[in-house]
Amino acid sequence: MTSWVGQVIQDYWRMTSGSWLLNYFSIRWLFSSGQLIGFRQVIRVTASQIYFTAAQALPLVIFLGFGVGFVFITQLLNPFFGLANVEMATKLFFNLIIKEAAPLLTIMIVVARSITAIATELGNMKINREIEALLSMSIHPISFVVLPRLAGGVTSLVILGVFFCLFSLFGALFSGTWFYRVPPVYFFNTLIGLFHSHDFVFLLLKLTGSGLFIFSIATYFGLSPKSSPSEVPICTTHAVVKSIVVALVFSGFLTVCEYLSVF
């Protein structure tokens, strides 16, 4: 048991250090090389990553966010308790959905769509020697494949997380006003009164930090295959599983830090 735990810790340490070293060298090259052609290519790939990760996933995030808020408030509000129950319901909604479930569900959507795609794409590029071919075009391969996906992925995750929270609020507001005839102004003011600046900061930290971790892991495992195409799905599976584990641990760590700071 002890040896297994030690092996797991060693694997995660190797993965974390390797992925962050990739990020460091890619960013270092971008600001030290001064190659305009390479910089333009990085910007182009970053924009493509934002389009794939954020724009294409936005309808799904809007639908799920609205549905989660709608279902949660529909089940939680009880008309027999009147307006007193609205305050309790909105507090639970804010603490459970906005602060915890919304960022985690957004991360799961991004992992399912983008982490699998990035790990598979980079794995195939590595096997087909496309990484080596980039050198012939005066483009640094590490920066071309790592930095754009990291920057575009983190930006997209923050955008999607904000939209998920926003439309879950719309879903909750629609449920409360439509089914239970709660005055919209009262419901809205109750929700807004729960927001504090530190809540917004912790939400951005969860989304940004989780994005840095999961997209770093995706690029790390995407560049891991050596020579056989059969290694690509194995590395993709590792990228997905470990991205989820690291995101959950990081989110839980921030939640504990938040509540310790409050109390």
Notable traits:
single chain, 263 residues, mainly alpha, 86% helix
Q: Please write the string of helix (H) and strand (E) elements.
A: HHHHHHHHHH
Distance between the termini: 36 Å
- What gross morphology would you assign? elongated
What percent of residues adopt helix (DSSP H or I)? over 70%
In the predicted model, the low-confidence regions spanning at least 5 consecutive residues are none
Domain tally: 1
Proportion in β-strands:
under 5%
Total count of helical runs of at least 4 residues? 10
Largest sheet: none
How many beta-strand segments?
0
Average pLDDT level: 82
List strands and helices in order, with pairings.
Elements: H1 2-33, H2 36-55, H3 58-76, H4 83-127, H5 130-135, H6 141-145, H7 147-179, H8 184-192, H9 197-222, H10 231-262
